[in-house]
């Protein structure tokens, strides 16, 4: 059965990014260089990276917040096509939540960014249509994931927990009502623990 998943790396105290995010420091005060060098050090592990790529291949549509897409605020006053270069890793439709309209942005490799101004339900409907019988990923950041958790639209949480604390920033579960989670997988890697939970409704 197709699933709606969330795959997120967080600090031990639940933050996916620190304060003071900017174009030069997209993860803000993240305990490292601002580019996730500590939060996302797991990506240097070839086995973990391959597992992540395999999961991306099972995902046929993605939803992300505008803050994850890029640093541009307000009206689209300049061209910005995401942090990932000309060939983003998604290779599928990506629906970006925003308050400001913009034409779809096709990229190399099959990724097209679509900009949705009608809210999370509208983006979810478009993603479901695009995904067909494939998975949908609520891809981040934490604020967007929290909105979909509150709406009861996520089936599975895949959390990579890194043993650092940030103390402040963008936090998973902020403002989310109590959830009934069932642990379905636990795996320890080099500098992280990967936990998968089914969200029972």
From TrEMBL:
<dbReference type="InterPro" id="IPR050765">
    <property type="entry name" value="Riboflavin_Biosynth_HTPR"/>
</dbReference>
<dbReference type="InterPro" id="IPR024072">
    <property type="entry name" value="DHFR-like_dom_sf"/>
</dbReference>
<dbReference type="InterPro" id="IPR002734">
    <property type="entry name" value="RibDG_C"/>
</dbReference>
<dbReference type="Pfam" id="PF01872">
    <property type="entry name" value="RibD_C"/>
</dbReference>
<feature type="domain" description="Bacterial bifunctional deaminase-reductase C-terminal">
    <location>
        <begin position="2"/>
        <end position="188"/>
    </location>
</feature>
<protein>
    <submittedName>
        <fullName>Dihydrofolate reductase family protein</fullName>
    </submittedName>
</protein>
């Amino acid at each position: 059965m197709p699933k709606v998943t969330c795959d997120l790396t967080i600090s031990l105290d639940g933050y996916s990014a620190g304060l003071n995010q900017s174009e030069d420091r997209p993860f803000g005060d993240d305990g490292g260089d601002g580019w996730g060098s500590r939060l996302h050090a797991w990506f240097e592990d070839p086995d973990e990276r391959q597992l992540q790529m395999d999961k991306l291949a099972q995902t046929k549509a993605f939803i992300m917040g505008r803050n994850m897409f890029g640093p541009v605020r307000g009206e689209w006053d300049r061209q910005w096509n995401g942090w990932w270069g000309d060939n983003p890793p998604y290779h599928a439709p990506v629906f970006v939540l925003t308050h400001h309209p913009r034409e779809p942005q096709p990229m190399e490799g099959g990724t097209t960014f679509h900009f949705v101004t009608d809210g999370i339900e509208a983006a979810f409907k478009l993603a479901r249509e695009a995904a067909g019988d494939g998975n949908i990923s609520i891809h981040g950041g934490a604020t967007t994931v929290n909105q979909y958790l509150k709406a009861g639209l996520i089936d599975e949480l895949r959390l990579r927990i890194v043993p650092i604390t940030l103390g402040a920033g963008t936090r998973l579960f902020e403002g989310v009502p109590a959830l009934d989670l069932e642990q379905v997988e636990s795996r320890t890697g080099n500098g992280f623990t990967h936990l998968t939970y089914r969200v029972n409704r």
